[in-house]
Amino acid sequence: MRRTHSTPQPQRDEAQRRHEVKLRANRTFCEAVKFDRELLENVKGFLDPEEGMRLYDTALLAAGKGPCLEIGSYCGKSAIYLGTACREKNSILFSIDHHRGSEEQQPGEEYFDPELFDFASWRMNTLGNFRITLDKAGLEENVVPIVTRSDVAARMWSSPLNLVFIDGGHSYETALMDYNCWAGHIVPGGYLLIHDIFPDPANGGQAPFLVYNHALESNLFKELPMTKTLGVLQRII
Predict the structure, then answer these.
(1) What are the tens digits of pLDDT across the range 85-133?
(2) Does 119 fall in a domain?
(3) CB 134 within 8 A of CB 140
(4) DSSP 8-class letter at 115
(5) Is 3 within the bounds of a domain?
(6) What was the pLDDT predicted at 6?
(7) What stretches of the chain show up as alpha helix (H) in DSSP?
(8) Residue 214: active-site member
(9) Are residues 62 and 143 in the same domain?
């Protein structure tokens, strides 16, 4: 007889508790902004609901003064939080992604999702999912997709930004490039947010954490309280 392995009860209980916490956080956000809770919960992505709510709250502070920008659209989960805040402030979110997947999302890698793989071109393609999310969320007039690499979009960029959210490729070279391309466009008082900050290497990759520290060492930013793995900095000069 083939033996099966079951998850120990304490682990199942903890997983269920975390799932319920996420659902409550989603419900709180959706009730506050009268949003489609089911859509938010079903959009593919790696953003914790509490982190998403922090994105929304910070974007509310920033968007009334000017545009916001995110690097790493994926399927649109973060754009829901940021874009909703921009809509409330009659502002714009620029959302940059080549939509070919980051390093860790390629075939054979840890976060590869075959549902997002275009077998005709043999490449990842998340653009369709992203556009569907914007349509369902009613954000097409407030979120502007920019379909290219972050460094390409930055070549001729001149508009000041009140918020930049970095959540693109997680190699050190890519994350540092995103910072170098966009941090200089953030106005004094504006915000730099970086996702997946893991001070302990045992918990996750170190590239975003190293870039986060690099930003602090520049003396251009002050540190605000983190929300889980979401680092929040405010430009001071």
Answers:
(1) 999 999 999 999 999 998 888 998 888 998 999 988 999 999 999 999 9
(2) yes
(3) yes
(4) G
(5) no
(6) 43
(7) 9-33, 37-42, 49-63, 77-88, 127-137, 150-154, 172-182, 207-217
(8) no
(9) yes
Closest CA to 73 of 104, 44, 49, 110: 44
Residue 1 belongs to some domain of the structure: no
Q: How many domains does the chain have?
A: 2
Dump pLDDT digits (tens) for 40-67. Answer: 999 999 999 999 999 999 999 999 999 9
> pLDDT tens digits, residue range 110-122?
889 989 999 889 9
Cα 67 to Cα 32: distance, rounded to the nearest angstrom: 22
8 A C-beta contact, residue 229 and residue 199: no
> Domain range for residue 21?
10-36
Annotated catalytic residue, options 99, 170, 185, 214: 170
Q: Which residue has the tokens 């060492």?
A: 217
If we measure between CA atoms, which residue out of 32, 31, 19, 175 comes closest to residue 103?
Answer: 175
Residue 4 lies in a domain: no
Helix (H, G, I), strand (E, B) or coil at 224: strand
What pLDDT, on a 0 to 100 scale, did the predictor assign at position 1?
35
